[in-house]
Amino acid sequence: MIEVAPPAAEALFGGGLARAIRYAELLVAHGVERGLIGPREVDRLWDRHLLNSVVIGELLPNAARVIDLGSGAGLPGVPLAIARPDLDLTLLEPMARRVEWLEHVTTTLGLGVSVIRGRAEESAIKQRIGGADAVIARAVAPLAKLCEWSLPLLRRGGSLVAMKGASAADEVARDREAVVRAGGGEPRLASCGVGLLTDPATVVVVEKKLDGPRDRRMRKDR
Ligand SMILES: C[S@@+](CC[C@H](N)C(=O)[O-])C[C@H]1O[C@@H](n2cnc3c(N)ncnc32)[C@H](O)[C@@H]1O
């Protein structure tokens, strides 16, 4: 394990650095045994997980209402909650054991975020947390499916920020039509953490333009 946080961590977490270190410690102590991270990830927690997550904050406006769809271990939501207390963050996760973990982490770190158990596509979830300014997601689903799940949770003009790494350009080329059909605008690629990280995070951003077929069906059923 990297016991000392890398220099970029101080710049990115600022006053939240002690909490970020505590989060890394919790992941090292319990993440593998709980199936939240693979054993090989322990040695690269900061670069590949915490720092890679926190830099997508560059794309999130001040005080935005944000949903981390499929938060799992708490990525990217927990690092963002630490570095950006202005955000109104909800961690959405369907698996009971992961929800338990997220509740444990957010309580231990004293983070003011909501943890909600459910699947993005459930009507009850849309009613409860829909209308968000942004949905963030990492390693949850291919872009087309992610748009189908996330766009109904956004207000018009809100954005999906999907952490995609090396597959980003291929996913955009493959799923562009499905994204537009689901009510999204043209997907665009962005790099976050340029000048701060050795490997900046590659994300796909999709703005919600129109209500998709699911939103329209729901309105008709009401
Ligand atoms: C591979 S894990 C990634 C977790 C975390 N985002 C990360 O990068 O470490 C995918 C997560 O998405 C959750 N998930 C899958 N389908 C979902 C859905 N329809 N709505 C919300 N979460 C979902 C899973 O339970 C799982 O925790």
Explain this structure.
The chain has 222 residues and is α/β, with parallel strands linked by helices. It is built from 9 helices and 7 strands. A 7-stranded mixed beta sheet has the order 3-2-1-4-5-7-6, with helices on both faces. Helix 2 (17-31) packs antiparallel against helix 4, helix 3 (45-54) crosses helix 4 and helix 7 packs across helix 8 (168-181). The longest helix has 15 residues, at 17-31. The chain is globular and about 50 Å long. Bound molecules: S-adenosylmethionine. S-adenosylmethionine binds next to strand 2. S-adenosylmethionine is lined by residues 69-73, 75, 92-95, 98, 119-121, 138-140, 149.
Question: Which descriptors would you attach to this protein?
Answer:
seven-stranded mixed sheet; binds S-adenosylmethionine; 20% strand; globular; single chain; 7 strands; 222 residues; alpha/beta; 9 helices
Quick gist of this model?
This protein has 9 helices and 7 strands. It has 222 residues and is α/β, with parallel strands linked by helices. A 7-stranded mixed beta sheet has the order 3-2-1-4-5-7-6, with helices on both faces.
Summed up, the helix count is 9
Low-pLDDT ranges? none
- Major sheet strand order: 3-2-1-4-5-7-6
Ligands in the model, by name, code or SMILES, are: S-adenosylmethionine
Percent strand: 15-25%
Class computed from helices, strands and strand pairing? alpha/beta
Helix % is: 40-55%
What's the Cα radius of gyration?
Answer: 17 Å
Instruction: Say how many strands there are.
Output: 7
> SSE string, helix = H, strand = E?
HHHEHEHEHEHEHEEH
Globally, the shape reads globular
Biggest sheet character: 7 strands, mixed
Instruction: Compute the average pLDDT.
Output: 94
How far is it from the N-terminal to the C-terminal residue, by CA? 53 Å
